[in-house]
Amino acid sequence: MTATVEYDQIHAIAQEVFAAMVDGDLGLLLPWDGDLPDIVDALVAWVDLHGEWSGRAVLVTGSDTAHDLARVLLGLDDGDAVSRADLVDAFGEIANVVGGNLKSLLPTPGTLGLPQVGDVLPPLAGAARVQHLPLSWRGRLLVVDVWVTLPTATSEGTS
Amino acid sequence: MRALVIDDSRTMRRIVAGTLEGLGFETLQAEHGRDALDQLEAGAEVDLACIDWNMPVMDGLEFVTAVRANPAWRAITLMMVTTEAEHSQIVRALAAGAHEYLIKPFTPDAIRDKLDLLGLVPVEELA
């Protein structure tokens, strides 16, 4: 896995997803430039991949940013209220599409779990983070991580 | 024409249904394959079903198989709209009876192009 899914591939997937689903234009999801701020009131969306290769695609951003993403996806106006259910559904669907496209890069077929959303990322036993992409969406931090379950995973991967 | 949009994500249902409505379709929505079958069994008449693959209760492939097993629904055009992008999955879906396959993420133009291939773009849209 580490040899087959590169930073640029993940970034290209994320850019394509945001261009098609959110922004209507490529180039609005850029590598984060500068020091990484803490994500306040984080929302985490993830989807697990199962098979000969197992792992997890994760998106993390602040709650305010997730609300804005949901407004765009749901066709709401700025400032419109977003229910928790809609927030979870919208952010989870972005993770779902990112994870599905990640799966297509893998050398062997596998299955995709259903997307999940929470305030914290639950541990994935025996997994290590193999890609970490701090990105800027409209100037706000959104992180895409890829975790892989390794037979010889180190303790780093269980946090 | 009428389309049934089947996806467990309300967000994705809204996106797909909105695109189809912009092309002149009336739309119905279902949260999973079983929900969609229930609507068909209750008499809903649709020309097109846009079907996600990974859903709880009944997934898209099971739905396609069930629709194709019922001669009464032979006229329904089935289009998978899914993140499942591997060639082997596309082959499985087409072998089960899907007519077209659209990989997420997609643009509105991509949906329109697929419908055009299927001869399902409403006449007023082509004019």
UniProtKB/TrEMBL annotation, chain A:
Coiled coil: none annotated. GO terms for biological process: chemotaxis. It comes from the Bacteria. Keywords: Chemotaxis. InterPro entries: CheC-like_sf, CheX-like_dom. Residues 44-117 form the Chemotaxis phosphatase CheX-like domain. This is Chemotaxis protein CheX.
Automatic annotation (TrEMBL), chain B:
The keyword Phosphoprotein applies. The modification 4-aspartylphosphate is found at residue 52. The keyword Phosphoprotein applies. Residues 2-119 form the Response regulatory domain. GO terms for biological process: phosphorelay signal transduction system. InterPro entries: Bact_response_regulator, CheY-like_superfamily, Sig_transdc_resp-reg_receiver. Pfam families: Response_reg (PF00072). Keywords: Phosphoprotein. PANTHER family: RESPONSE REGULATORY DOMAIN-CONTAINING PROTEIN, STRESS RESPONSE REGULATOR PROTEIN 1. This is Response regulator. It comes from Cellulomonas rhizosphaerae.
